[in-house]
Specification:
Blueprint: H1 5-10, E1 18-21, E2 26-30, E3 36-44, E4 47-56, H2 61-76, H3 81-97, H4 100-110, H5 112-117, H6 121-129, H7 131-134, H8 144-156, H9 160-179, H10 209-220, H11 226-238, H12 242-246, E5 253-254, E6 259-263, E7 270-274, H13 277-290, H14 313-320, H15 332-344, H16 349-355, H17 374-392
Amino acid sequence: MPLSDTAIKNAKPADKPYKMQDEKGMYLLVHPNGGKYFRYNYRFDGKRLTLSIGVYPATSLKEAREKRDTAIKQIAGGINPSENKKAVKQSRTESAANSFEVIAREWGQKKVNEWDDKNNRSKRMLERNIFPWLGNKPIIDILPKDILACLRRVEDRGTIETAHRSLQICGQVFRYAVATGRTERDITPDLRGALPPAKGEHFASITEPKQVAELLRAIDGYQGSLASICALKLAPLVFVRPGELRAAEWQHFDLEAKEWRYYVSKTDVQHIVPLSTQAIAILEELQPLTGHGRFVFSSERTPRGDRCMSENTLNAALKRLGYGKDVMTAHGFRAMARTILDEVLGVRVDFIEHQLAHAVRDPNGRAYNRTAHLPERHKMMQGWADYLDGLKAGALVIQFEKRA
């Protein structure tokens, strides 16, 4: 009599394993521990063999019969079901071992020093932009269009530079796979020209966390006027344009509300900079010196404070610290924040773009309100300041909450 779901459910364990017969050589084996296993007895090349079909209830009676019928067809075609099952399992194991993610992580381990020095930047870029879609796929099965689809998602976030860097990293992973015999060629050159060119402001900047830590420690040791010291310390915390920083006016600061509100150069658009506790501490240190005048960073040549510091003050200070214009500029603090907030800390790109006072538009082309996401930007700016403190102290990367 064929098995039924009711009979299987009601089957009780006994002192010894026993069988409940179904049809066409299949049966249910009930173990003393209560385990229920579908088995199929068959003959192949004159030998009596048994195929393990599945465990009940993970494998239903209907599924077990379908697997049995597949095995019967394989036998008729001259295929041993048990050997075929082993071959499929081996193939899956090999596919998993040759997946893009496994190979990428293996490549990363071979470059441990670089992986660490970049504070997992390459790793995080792959984890965010590539692994979710291609991580489990055998690298030999990945096509250029598959990589491009991932890069388009990055591009749609407004981070074309990150898309280009992600492509470069994919190329390194593919070349490692070629060298280790897991794929035939690096397919990333096929995507040359597929992405729009990266557009940058072309100001030298430091964006590797380890080097940023060294820069911050150098700034802490800078010997100069109090105004230039404070401007240099504030620049990475607020990452506004250098001209807007040096021309900052006390009347635009509300330290109780933890905000700096001013009009962006040559526009009638007000920009809001949330102030971290670290930024406020710097301003409070400087206030007794320049608070009586108009400008926060007043020129030393005008005791009344009616002129701001010169255009070259910050770049000159960086040069004195050993950071020439080909290494780091005052404008470079913006690229530093933009890159690390996105690629290392995973902050939402629209939050970052708003804070950089870049034009941010919705899908209909309308400009977003400058106050958009202000509470989140307050949180981001405090988290950024805390992160910089952690870098400076030699701590591990501080993780932000994952972007929505």
